[in-house]
Amino acid sequence: MPGRYIAFDVETPNHYNNRMSSIGVAVVEGGKIVQTFSSLINPECPFDYYNIHLTGITPSMVQTAPTFPELWSSTLEPLFDSGMLVAHNAGFDMRVLAHCLIHYGISWKGTADYCCTVALGRKTYPSMPNHKLDTLCYYLNIDLHHHQADSDAIACAKLLINYMEQGTVPEKYKRCRSMISV
Fold this sequence. Notes:
By secondary structure, this protein is α/β, with parallel strands linked by helices. The protein has helices at 49-55, 59-62, 68-80, 90-103, 117-124, 133-140, 149-165, and strands at 4-11, 22-29, 32-40, 84-87, 111-116, 175-178. The protein is built from 7 helices and 6 strands.
């Protein structure tokens, strides 16, 4: 299985969905997860009760966490530059990433290639009642602690590996997202 894929998931602190409170990353190479990374992120903005309840992440938990720019330069940019980005319901995660880059004035690249494991799931398992992350993970017996970025990213990576084992080619579903506008 050729290619290097960077499966990632973000959690957000509020309904604006324009900052991250957590990120998880799982790198897939040769049909295996070869690296993982996760971190809380200080979003430097208010939290909504709904998001706290959904993710379990509170303002006090991120108070001493790195900010997005700190994580970007030290860890995320080198990872994200190393392969095609992958996320479940990728439009959401890619939009949050673009918002963060723009808000902090971080110049990365004009566009980023990515694929969505929802679209890949529809191709690979068309008869499923839906293609939500928890539904697919239950069906494929993949461990999931939903709305925890590290678990969601690893589950996304495992879905990607399963889809490729079934013959689905992620590059056929590649999309491109502007990283300079939202």
